[in-house]
Batch of 4 targets.
Target 1
Amino acid sequence: MGARKHNTAEARKEAQKTQYFAKLNNVPTSPRKMRLVADMIRGMEVNRALGALHFSTKEASRALEKLLKSAIANWETKTGKKADQETLYVTCITVDGGMMLKRLLTAPQGRGYRVRKRSNHVTIFVDTKNTNAEK
């Protein structure tokens, strides 16, 4: 690895030590459906977001609820504080397209239609409000 790449990789590692996040790869729902649920909780307080995800009827909300709990646990282990004592917020949530399974669906007259089974990658960042104001 070159010196420039090494320096940027080290800077990225240092920046991630102060960020509290969780990432979930290859969730078997389309990115469009996951973004609907992600937009619902973006910028929310964590306890309200967990309640909204728990009572949502969307299938994608189950995976997102589990991921949010993981992000909260990551925040607790990195800071050494309990999430009950602080007010945590969902600072950033991104949904990116993942790998796509390409399948064939039989069609009339000897043809075949392509079916794309999409997946996505979700990343959630959580932090306290006063830390966001300092940055």
Note: The first helix runs from residue 3 to 17.
Target 2
Amino acid sequence: MNLLTISSSPRTSSQTAKVAQFIHNEAAKHDFAGEHVDLQALNLPFFSGNAAEFAMNESWLALVEQIKAADAFVLATPEWNGMASPMLKNFLMAIPNGLAANKPALLVTVSAGLNGAYPIAELRGHAFKNNRIVPIPEHLIVRYAEETFNQVAAEGKPDELAHQRLQDSLLMLRHYAEALQAVQSAYNDKEWKPTGM
């Protein structure tokens, strides 16, 4: 199974990218292979509804091929002011119609403190109408990110529960990826409407 992991913090060397890379590495235990892409490094244009602007961007063209090859996604965002990253929303709006349709995604939010729930609600409610990505029922809220999902847990701050939840979520993602392949095949020849209706 091919997994495309997307991290979407605008910061370099972000906790979101660290968490996403850790999750991507752990996904190999569930027979996933693929790439982790940090959107911060790509310098994608701001989505204006004009697909031609993206068609001229080499980073985007490479990313489109990765989206096409993916069987599943991990979508990781920091929580800023109770919202998902603009970079992630920009990415989700720019995906060409049908390219990611009926492919499952594990949603991950990253917080420096006790927060992190709001982006999950925002994404589930508003992010998948037109691109038709299927968020799985499980999600991860990574709180106290500096102390969580490091290669070695911080002394005195074990994160066994977070690790177990991660493994359970990746297993569910794997099962959804397998099950939804039949749905994707059924819609191979569909001409998708641009508005998602």
Note: The chain has a mean pLDDT of 91.
Target 3
Amino acid sequence: MKKIRKGDNVVVIAGKDKGKRGSVLRVEGDERVVVEGVNRVKKHQRPNPMRNEAGGIVEFEKSIHVSNVAVLNSVTQKADRVGFKILDDGRKVRVFKSNGEMVDA
């Protein structure tokens, strides 16, 4: 089970986009995540008529390391660390370290 998943609201805690907030669009492997509006880059792309792609300068999000983001605690509106807890019915859930609230609730 991963500490950061697709759809989580996160805060960037290090790097050039420090302080920005966004939603996780996808998780790439074990160590990288793509966050909307964070680490945007420009790429000069050639037109490809076979795929109906126009050429020009395309802007999109690149992945950042998972250690540079933290899950946003909706109660405190701050970045928070995530831990795991096993409930009485045997389910394993993610909880915030600061207040013990469930992340997925």
Note: The chain has no helices and ten strands.
Target 4
Amino acid sequence: MNPEPFLQLDRVIHEKGRLAIMSLLAATPELSFTELRDTLGMTDGNVTSHIRTLQEAGYVVVAKSYQNRRPLTTCALTAAGRKAFADYITLLEQIVQQTRKP
């Protein structure tokens, strides 16, 4: 088995919490912080930490606004984030194909 694809996995995305966030954001244009937290069953601090890491990598954009006089934080993938996630999935598919070869 060729170990090269394993070495190319994006470590920013590969962590399970960030992978879950990226997966949710890839499936929908935008999610609120609360939706992410509740769907993933994470703490506020955990989601904040993972979002910050993804934001620093340029994969996620965070917008703060108000809805019904209450603060609303939303997250969405950037174009770079969509590409990085697609590349990550392609690499995983290559790894799976390697393991299926006799």
Note: DSSP finds six helices and three strands in the chain.
